[in-house]
Design goal:
alpha+beta; two-stranded antiparallel sheet; 2 strands; binds calcium ion
Amino acid sequence: MEPEPGVGNISLNPLFSNLNNSNFSYENNSPCINQGDPQLVDPDGSRSDIGANYYFITILGDCNDDSNVNIVDIVSIIDNCIMNDFAETCNCGDLNEDGDINIVDIVILVNIILND
Ligand SMILES: [Ca+2]
Ligand SMILES: [Ca+2]
Ligand SMILES: [Ca+2]
């Protein structure tokens, strides 16, 4: 089936994660991501995606989910993950993915920010 010609219609494979399980979420390389109505914004702060679903773009180190990795995230990680040990909310801060949030992760995050 060919889509109607027109703005916003594409005929690429949308790369659904798992159609067999009726899972219509997108793979991270789906051509639908950020190709929807440019006037609309997804909950993750990016341009809208084509279709009913959207792909949540998570940025490693972006612990306050504002789509920027900066000093605020470092403070957030130190406060929430290292000082208070709320480990369950700290996946964003485990930059070397060793299962632990510590100074090593902070150093990696600082380097990311400085090199950005
Ligand atoms: Ca999007
Ligand atoms: Ca942030
Ligand atoms: Ca770590």
